[in-house]
């Protein structure tokens, strides 16, 4: 355990230093900063895996999942080779490979160092959310003390190129607070009895203030499903629903207090007719369907919805249509099979172990992943860098909790599979680093609000 812990600590230090440098660079948008940071994390993850893959317990995918990943990558290469811009297709394939590699590394770390999944990871989640929430409260009180200035609800939120991207991140991490936090050397719920509910309510209030409908819908759908699954799932769903109600009331308090202080009405998206409607998504979905019909087997190329120059967005805002239109229907079917089987088996395991220790953690991890998949039906959860990063890490956490690895019959075969798995990660991470180095000059002073729709970089459309 000592060697993984040393490498983990060193990686955190190096990643933190590089992240600080990235976020201090002038003229780089939040979106592109997050993409650069994601690439750094992927590169560190691949290097870490290259050192530790031969150690007992290194987590790779199951044989069916490995074969499915290999099929997806090969089909992606075939699609990208015929696409308008093969180098951008390869970039999207590299993101997929690095995300899977990071998930496996996180699962390995949790198996090697159980306290990582019990204390460190939950602690990082809470600390990160606390910083975001404190900034929200500071902005609220600043708005009250400067009531003469122009106010927009989005002025209370910062840190993301678009508050909807913040919502995609919160969709996954807020439900994680619905489980008990095992604190080293202390009672199981010493903090969570009061701290977590307050943090959950504050986070949901931020989402209501931002008007991020996809996040609220994902939480409601997931809670509605989980409420009827088992006692453990019901417990988690109840906590999320209570947080939603408390967050909505808190958001009303924010709007009402600012309206009273300024003497002007404050617009709330959730109190207007704008809460309904597809916001141009139907045109995106129709275009994606047309692409599927035109190229059903290999699609138009990974990431290549961007090349269609659609006026409403650079991705279909629908996970299934995105995969089918860009990668092809066979890749969509493979993805549905892998995800469906994993969710089904994990749910059965959680139900069977509902009364055992750690049941809350199992259900909140499933809730977070399921909510992300629900939001991905109407939003770009699979597209934006920060949500991509967190989905990979939470999936790795769940992989450690639910997956019981089977030792291959021949050690040489296991070693070769691990070597090949890590080698592909290193190649993918190196290619992403090359793209970042190649395009860095173009990122300086790029438009902050991504007028052409973000995809890889903030102004990421391409014409070949």
UniProtKB/TrEMBL annotation:
Domain of life: Bacteria
Transmembrane intervals: 6-24, 36-54, 66-84, 93-113, 119-138, 198-228, 240-261, 327-343, 363-382, 388-404, 416-437
Membrane topology reported for the UniProt record: Multi-pass membrane protein
GO molecular function annotations of the record: ligase activity
Localization terms from the record: Membrane
Major site of localization recorded for this protein: membrane
Source species of the chain: Azonexus fungiphilus
Name this protein carries in UniProt: O-antigen ligase
GO cellular component: membrane
Swiss-Prot/TrEMBL keywords: Ligase, Membrane, Transmembrane, Transmembrane helix
Every O-antigen ligase-related domain range: 200-335
